Amino acid sequence: MLHQNILNHLVLVMMQESLLQNNFLLTNSILLFVAFFIGCSGGTNGSSAVSSTKESVYSYAVLGPISNANVRILRVVDAKLAYETQTKTYNNELEVTWPQNKIGSFVVDTNNSFSDDDLMLIHVTSGSDVDANDDGQIDASFTTLQGDMYAYATLRYIKESGVYVNIFSTLAAQKVTAGKSPTEIIDILTLYAKKIFRLSLNSDDEIDYKDLNAFVPNLTETKKFINPEIYTQMQSSGLMFAVLDDENLSEFINRDSDGDGLTWEEEIFIGSSVSLVDTDADGLLDFDELQAGTDPLNKDSDFDGINDADEIQSGTNPLNSDMDGDYIPDGVELARGSNPFNGDEDLNGILDGLDGDPFFKYQWHLRSEGTVVSNTNNIATIIGNDLDILEVYHYQLGNGSSTIIQVVDTGVELIHEDLPIDLTRSLNAVTGGNDPTSTQPVSKTDPYSPFGVGHGTAVAGIIAARANNGTGVRGVVPNAVIAGSNWLEEQSLYELERAWYSAPNADEILVSNNSWGTYFLKDTSFEDIIKLSVEQLRGGKGRVFTVAAGNDRKTFGNANLSYVANNRYSIAVASLDYNNTFSSYSNPGSNILVSGYGGERYYESPTIATTLLTGKSYYEAELGTTRGAITFDEDSEKSYTFSMNGTSSATPMVSGAIALVLESCPNLTWRDVRWLLSYTSRRIDENNEKWIKNSAGRIHNINYGYGLVDADAMIQECRSKYYENLSVEKSGVVSINNLNTDIPDTKIGVQLTIDFLDAFVVEWVELTFDSDHPYAGDLEIVLVSPSGTRTQIITPNELRSNTYSGGFRFSSAAFMGENSNGRWTIEVIDQLESDSGKINSVQLKMYGH
What we know:
It is built from 18 helices and 31 strands.
């Protein structure tokens, strides 16, 4: 039986070759040429051949694998027959799958008088397709190849790489007309290849004619094609059987079966339907869309909420989501009744999308203009050091009541003028009702008390404070709602399970923000609840969970010391200062995935402006030399603050960014969100020594994860027709028990190796470490992948007992994209003298696809 990923049929162009006594003839205006190879299954040479002593390089004839086909090889310049052979036949005694069983392969002896630079043509006829229905299984009876297959290649390429004679090489060959020189032929083939591929299929990274010969059906990644569905469309159109049946393929690919003015070949190249005149049903013919430059596969080419045809009719531009550049998408403007052609309708000198929030000017994390804001130390922000979120607002602001972000915290004030609360999905863990307002009183003598009680209200404002409403600040998601919870006031697992998973209407919540944690937590109860949520909610795509990395750096804290932050379902978020370096308090951790802004302290440098409890903030003059919940002098109601900070601030910025991404790409799963963060986040503080580049090209830092969240980059990536959701999750585990390995009480350290046999693309790594060391905080643990990528799994910390006894699980996001297979190395170093211990056991568990 063939492997499930066996080559499928390839579409062939109708060609005929006539050869008589090594004389080259032209048929159907197609020039055919001669090359010289060695046959592995017999055949005759056009000249004497010497058997090669080198390892054989296999070439293939593939629709499904073509067994027992005739292969003729001719040289272009003189049409000389160089070699004849046959492809390998099917052997039903072999149990290995294709291509290991070599069905359809042939080998060519290159020890001859031909130059390596000679351009050759390979011509394949007869034989049998052993998998004509393309189901990945050997057919009960084979289908005879009655048509012709072709490929051009230089002798050097054949010798070094081998050639796949396939549908694309054959289609391209029909474009060659009589009298063309080898150079002209290569130019014609290269031009054709550039109409098919967006990425090179071979190692030279340049799209050219050689890519035509490198295509392997079902094994070549679909993202390599301009139209990622091109091969599927070829199969469904019947072209494979047209080749087998020797139909006139030239007529086949040049027909216009749906009458939209585009040939079959033109439609296949772009991905439009060969049977529908308006593939995306937007009111514009596919042909007209190509003329207009719009996307015939997307009824809203610019993602502004208006169909392309409606935009053309109304006069807006279907290729510009924000015609007046005012940071409000055209579709939103039309829905509101505002003018999409006028970016400043009230003529106040402020673009409409940036107007209506008087304290927006203090929110440097949204737009940093190099001014002195949100601090009492007169420190100016740095131009460009912000979330760069405004770019997203040209096409996405959130979708109002359907964009729901949960804040599990001290509660969210229901009556706040600037917060949109979704009462149907909010919970009060103390009263059992739906009003998420904190039940705790605010101290009249402690200026910091409004933060203690109003922490969740401040978090909610960072995420989704209303925009353009004439008051206050705005959130990262200007048009969304908050599902609040005051679980921190009643910390039972029952109430947390309700908030995270089982409460009514839970399915529609996109993101759960958790700006809280503990210094040390070894309890899987939390992730057991999260697991249910990511597996079942949001229609099975999973609610996304963000968790603060913690604020304990100065006491040697590490985000990897908490099971809430280091499980594979949670996105641990680090904090940045205004200068794009890590905040002095922000915990490091190999489990950290991404960063947001938290600032430092308002009396030192810029911090975060957001909502706070109504009437509870303090003016600077009121505080005097005391520090507390400070607000702007313009805040007449004292319901805001500019002193919010911590990973508690960074986390909701990431939550808001992810919500914008999920509204733009609603089919993403929780794993896809993590995956996108790993290669779209913005690298900052580039001189920091902790950046490591893994073998997949992704750059991680225990201080920053993969960098500053970039919602626009995530959306551009996931909206691309080349993005594919991650495949089914895989996992593997290797345990080594009863080690009894001494940890030297020096800085020399000890190494352990684990051979991981399962092979998949890594998304997450867990290392469970069991040691009787009486002072666990002395230990530094480093994990090294088979490719040499090194990450500090845990740094020395303040744990003062044998905390790792019985096993403690650490995690890492640093290896995303690497191959799991191979020898992994664990390095354990005792960084402080006077205490010693042993390693009892280790377990390495990985997840990926």
